[in-house]
Specification:
alpha/beta; eight-stranded mixed β-sheet
Length: about 325
């Protein structure tokens, strides 16, 4: 490994012994070789640690770090604090990337002096999860590719076309930008990408969209992404909304874009909340009435209060 690799790949690991081998292998097989892979074992109680050490012993670009279980955000932040690369890529330990991912992203970033590029994803999984797979889609069809614009312009375009995806795994970022704005993941917050990615867009001056499915997302029934919704999930969405409004107010610009995003995010969250117990749905309604009523459509409120009831008829 070179003293200062060009790319730092940060991969938190927690209870993914079945999948982490494939994830790491997809990194090792990258066409672009000048990278470091930082594996952050977030207190995983399964056999992941042995698998990670096997790769570290095999390839000097692979480094393993350990911490007590603190969650995805803390693990990513630890990796970010250790990263030496000019660019950073965040990857989950049950997913994979195409072999040309790093080569394509760094070439475009360097050529056009970009803060980051964003790209699409394909989904895959077990045959038994086919119905689950059908509910996930991460490709843009209306956003103009390869053109350089500001982060807020890119965000507004995606929101206008209903093609914004918040996953940090669909971003290839210049580390200098993250350091400059002290941009990290909020610890203790679920759906942390909803906050991190928006803040990244709002503080970037040169970005571009690569219309390629570089990221390969594994959809499985027992992942964080597909776990059952709880009241805390919804509370986190409202916390994110508070933080984004506060940021836009302090920044003194982009408030319209932030409000447009919050309407999309909060309506989706309220709609999903109809599966919660009645008492929890009342708590969500209280949050809305307390200060978010202007962001929520009447249809979303109806679904929150009555869809579960009617589903039993």
């Amino acid at each position: 490994m070179t003293e200062q690799p060009l790319i730092s790949i940060i991969m938190p690991v927690y209870n993914t012994e079945q999948y982490v081998d494939a994830a790491i292998e997809s990194v090792i097989k990258q066409e672009f070789k000048d990278f470091e892979l930082l594996l952050i074992n977030d207190g995983s109680p399964d056999h992941s640690a042995q698998i990670l050490q096997k790769w570290a012993d095999h390839d000097q670009r692979v480094q393993v770090f350990y911490q007590h279980n603190q969650g995805l955000s803390a693990a990513r932040n630890k990796g970010l604090s250790l990263a030496k690369g000019k660019y950073v890529y965040f990857m989950d330990s049950d997913d994979m990337v195409r072999p040309d991912t790093l080569a394509s992203c760094i070439a475009y970033c360097d050529e056009w002096h970009l803060d980051f590029v964003y790209f699409d994803a394909a989904v895959f999984g077990e045959e038994k999860d086919a119905e689950l797979l059908s509910g996930f889609y991460y490709s843009r069809n209306k956003v103009f590719p390869y053109a350089v614009c500001t982060g807020p312009q890119a965000l507004a375009s995606q929101l206008d076309h209903g093609e914004f995806f918040s996953s940090a795994c669909m971003l290839f970022i210049k580390k200098e930008l993250l350091d400059q704005h002290a941009l990290k993941f909020e610890v203790g917050l679920l759906h942390e990408d909803e906050l991190f990615t928006i803040l990244l867009y709002l503080q970037s001056k040169r970005v571009a969209y690569l219309s390629q499915q570089f990221f390969l997302r594994r959809v499985r029934a027992d992942s964080i992404m597909t776990s059952s919704l709880k009241l805390y999930n919804i509370q986190c969405y409202f916390k994110i909304a508070d933080l984004l409004l506060s940021f836009a107010d302090q920044q003194g610009e982009n408030m319209d874009i932030v409000k447009q995003y919050l309407k999309s995010m909060l309506n989706a969250a309220v709609w999903k909340a109809h599966v919660l117990p009645f008492r929890d749905r009342c708590t969500v309604l209280f949050f809305i009435l307390k200060g978010w009523l202007g962001y929520i459509r009447a249809r979303s409120l109806f679904v929150l209060l009555f869809k579960k009831f009617y589903s039993y008829k």
